[in-house]
Amino acid sequence: MINLSNLSPHPGSRKQKKRLGRGRGSGHGKTSGRGHNGYKSRSGSGVKPGFEGGQMPLQRRLPKRGFTNLFKKEYSIINVKDLDRFDSGSRIDRETLVAVGLISNQDQKIKILGDGEVSKSFTVAVDKLSESARKKIEAAGGSFEE
Questions:
Q1: Which domains does the chain have, with CATH numbers?
Q2: What is the pLDDT of residue 106?
Q3: How many helices (H) and strands (E) does the chain have?
Q4: 3-state DSSP percent of the chain in helix, strand and coil, to 5
Q5: pLDDT band at 18, cuts 50/70/90?
Q6: pTM
Q7: How many C-beta neighbours within 10 Å does residue 98 have?
């Protein structure tokens, strides 16, 4: 029977680390498997990642595209159909949406879009509302707070 006290890896599945510079008897003494002299025997040698032997590297051959806005506002998106699970007359804000699990990031702003239908009236207190979502919520008798 196998248990934690007698577990061991299959023979040959675990290789021992090559211990360099530990004397001639080890087989990796003196030059430590690097040969004699030359660039590759020195410390800090080796080509940098992306180096292509002097050919213009791929990351410099490809064109730069696009633009990243550092001040972009990101919103957690919720559709109107997702709000129908709340009771009629309730107030929907960040805390209630996190408690139900509709949003996970508490720091992100919230925007409600108008996909689906809503049948109950409630007060919505979020950062942004699309025009179609506002019409559907108000048509059902609800209101919006900023």
A1: 75-145 (3.100.10.10)
A2: 77
A3: 3, 6
A4: 25, 15, 60
A5: very high
A6: 0.55
A7: 15
Question: pLDDT digit string (tens) for 85-124?
Answer: 899 989 999 999 999 999 987 788 999 999 999 988 999 9
Contacts of 141 (CB under 8 A, 6+ apart): 121
End-to-end CA distance of the chain: give it in Å, rounded. Answer: 65
Residue with tokens 């992306």: 50
The predicted model gives 122-138 an average pLDDT of: 93
d(CA 99, CA 7): 44
Strand partners, 79: 113
Instruction: Name the token pair of 91.
Output: 């107030």
Give backbone dihedrals phi and psi of 78, rounded to 5 degrees, phi first: -130, 140
pLDDT grade, residue 65 (50/70/90)? Answer: very high
Q: In whole angstroms, what is the distance from residue 116 CA to residue 53 CA? A: 58
50 half-sphere exposure, CB direction, 13 A CA radius: 6
Which neighbouring-strand residues pair with 112?
Answer: 78, 129
As a whole-number percent, the residues of the chain with pLDDT over 70 amount to 100
Residue 113 neighbours by CB distance under 10 Å? 17
